[in-house]
Prior knowledge:
Structural Genomics Hypothetical 15.5 Kd Protein In mrcA-pckA Intergenic Region, Chain A, Alpha-Beta Plaits, nine-stranded mixed sheet, 245 residues, four-stranded antiparallel sheet, 27% strand, alpha+beta
Amino acid sequence: MTAKVPMARLDRLLANLGYGSRREVGGLVARRQVMLDGEIVKDVGAKIPIVADLPERMKIVGKPIDPPAPLTLIMHKPLDVVCSHREAGRSVYELLPQRWRARTPALSSIGRLDKDTTGLLLITDDGPFLHRVISPRANVAKRYVATLDRPLEGGEVEAFAAGTLMLESETEPLAPALLEPLGPNAARLTITEGRYHQVRRMFAAVGNHVTALHRDRIGNLDLPADLQAGAWRILTANEQLSLFA
């Protein structure tokens, strides 16, 4: 049985993608600036099929339409940028096209990296996908490279793997985590939980301090080597699946 293709009114679709209010979208149509399959769209109420190749088929003011929901991005988060819509400071959303901040449903980061942490960040408007990634039952691992203020003492690998390490002010021990020393003052740490500032607090619990932190993998998805700090692109379907492989 062929799946039914979802449809949306043109004015609602473009308003949800941040191109303006429905009235402003009507102005785009009146000025003959919306085209579908090479033809000018004259009816603001026209029903548009929401399909994967819509950006190849529809143009707004001569440019391909933005990808419709659901949309998931991979970003190389730079230093000194926050992941929250509400937190003070420049946010990761300011690295995206301005109108994307007006999209409905809104784009949200899948988990957060703090202002002082760089690396792989996923941003999506796909609620079920977001919850699948962060669900404890999914057990999706996250890998970080930490630069440390003091040399490792030698017992950290066992301490992190034991499943008994306690963080300050918490009553439940951490799940076992994999620590791989990379040098006297550097290590790679893989965790399956997402507690507040977890990596930094883990090293604090063994008497050390993280001076730099970078996330390079989620699940089996690596941060692409060619994705520079501050850059982003759309995550492919195969890359989404690799998160859970």
